[in-house]
Specification:
Helices cover 51% and strands 22% of the residues. The chain is built from 6 helices and 4 strands, in the order αββαββαααα. The chain starts with 9 loop residues before the first helix and ends with a helix.
């Protein structure tokens, strides 16, 4: 797509993602017929959701992935997402300019590099991966969750206690 009359820099794109985007190591339960118990699948995911399509279309044009609309309580929202190797490539392009999401972005890159190595070494196993591979994937998943949880708690608004509670504290 061609954009007229606008010059978008990597700094702007990274800043937009830093404020609106999400980096995660996802875990999804998979049922594999050859295995006695369900297995977990892991993947690197980048996503942005908001009400305006145009900025997300630019991410789609730059990095590929998926862009779709959905509704919440009658309001239309748009979501862009990209995963695995494409997500790694996007993070590598944005990383020099990230501030808030730098730590989770670095975990995402390390995760994807390690996933590629594990898949090369062990192939895509229908019967399951060795315990150390599963433990390594779980470790990345929990590291990413901890970083994302820390980011959320830093941005919570203070709880409103009301004038009676404040008066009681000062009395």
């Amino acid at each position: 797509m061609q954009y007229e009359h606008t010059m978008i820099t990597w700094q702007y794109i990274a800043g937009f993602f830093d404020g609106e985007g999400c980096v995660s190591v996802g875990r999804a339960r998979r049922v594999v017929p050859q295995m006695k118990e369900p297995a977990w699948g892991y993947s690197l995911l980048l996503a942005i959701a908001q009400r305006h399509r145009e900025p997300l279309q630019r991410f789609m044009d730059l990095f590929g992935g998926n862009l779709y609309a959905y509704r919440v309580k009658g309001v239309e929202y748009w979501r862009w997402s990209v995963s695995s190797h494409r997500a790694q490539a996007a993070i590598e392009k944005l990383l020099p300019y990230l501030l808030n999401k730098r730590a989770i972005a670095e975990v995402g890159i390390r995760f994807q590099i390690q996933m590629t190595a594990w898949n090369k070494e062990h192939g895509r196993r229908r019967g399951g991966y060795p315990a150390e591979v599963i433990a390594g994937r779980e470790a990345f998943y929990h590291e990413a969750r901890a970083l994302n949880a820390k980011a959320r708690t830093n941005h919570r608004a203070p709880k409103y206690e009301g004038p009676k509670a404040i008066a009681a504290k000062t009395a």
